[in-house]
């Protein structure tokens, strides 16, 4: 689906409709035009991906918090190493976002 900007007969504008069929109905005797989505820089796209990655990372850290005090857990060492990798990621990732840490990696 695309967005369409409506211009009414009296020249007022500003309504955005999600599909062409409804844009035609809403415009009535006015007109409608396809609104081009904004173009984002590669830097902005990368920062957006990193923000999403940080949200995932923070959830993973939260999910593994319960293992920190369990020093006799069979995977304790691997989980602690995983948590260190999580805290350093994605800042240290050369091939972000394809480098998500995993337990035991």
Describe the fold and architecture.
It is built from three helices and three strands. α2 (42-64) packs antiparallel against α3 (76-88). The chain has a three-stranded antiparallel sheet with strand order 2-1-3, with helices on one face. It is α+β, with helices and mostly antiparallel strands. It has helices spanning 20-27, 42-64, 76-88, and strands spanning 3-7, 13-17, 31-35. The protein is elongated and about 75 Å long. Helices cover 42% and strands 14% of the residues. The model has no long low-confidence stretch (mean pLDDT 85). It folds into two domains: 3-35, no CATH class; 42-88, no CATH class.
Write the layout of secondary structure elements.
Elements: E1 3-7, E2 13-17, H1 20-27, E3 31-35, H2 42-64, H3 76-88
Antiparallel strand pairs: 1-2, 1-3
Helix pairs in contact: 2-3
Whole-number average pLDDT?
85
Give me the Rg, rounded.
24 Å
Q: How many E strands?
A: 3
Total separate domains: 2
Sequence stretches where pLDDT stays below 50 over 5 or more residues? none
Number of helices: 3
Q: Biggest sheet, open or closed, and with what strands and sense?
A: 3 strands, antiparallel
- For the largest sheet, list the strands in their spatial order: 2-1-3
Report the principal-axis shape: elongated
Distance between the termini: 41 Å
How are helices and strands ordered from N to C?
A: EEHEHH
Strand content: 5-15%
Going by helix content, strand content and strand pairing, the class is: alpha+beta
Q: Fraction of residues in helices?
A: 40-55%
